[in-house]
C-alpha cells in the first residue's frame, strides 16, 4: 500500500508541472487573441510603412557608398593607409591627407 501511494505521489509530481505549463500556454494564447489586446494594438501601434529606397543615390549604390578602395581614395603620406575621397584627415593616424 505504501509503495502504491509513493508511486501515485511521484506520478503527480512529475506530470503536474507539465499540465500547469500547458494551461499557462493556452491561457496566454487566449489572451493574445483577445479583442482588448487587438484594439489596444491598433490604437497605440498604427500600421507603418517602410520608407522607399532613396533615389538620389542612383542605380550604382555600391559606387556611391564605397568608402575604401582604389576608386577615388587617396593614400595617407604618413602611414600609407587608404583614405576615402574628399576627407582631410586619415582614419588610422589622424594625420593630414592633403
Automatic annotation (TrEMBL):
- Alphabetical UniProt keywords: Membrane, Transmembrane, Transmembrane helix
Annotated TM spans: 6-25
Its recorded name reads Zinc ribbon domain-containing protein
Q: The organism's lineage?
A: Archaea, Methanobacteriati, Methanobacteriota, Stenosarchaea group, Halobacteria
Amino acid at each position: 500500500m505504501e509503495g502504491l501511494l509513493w508511486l501515485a505521489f511521484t506520478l503527480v509530481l512529475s506530470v503536474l508541472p507539465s499540465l500547469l505549463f500547458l494551461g499557462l500556454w493556452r491561457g496566454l494564447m487566449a489572451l493574445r487573441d483577445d479583442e482588448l489586446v487587438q484594439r489596444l494594438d491598433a490604437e497605440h501601434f498604427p500600421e507603418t510603412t517602410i520608407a522607399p529606397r532613396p533615389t538620389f543615390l542612383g542605380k550604382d549604390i555600391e559606387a556611391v557608398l564605397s568608402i575604401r578602395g582604389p576608386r577615388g581614395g587617396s593614400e595617407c603620406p604618413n602611414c600609407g593607409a587608404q583614405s576615402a575621397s574628399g576627407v582631410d584627415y586619415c582614419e588610422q593616424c589622424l594625420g593630414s591627407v592633403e
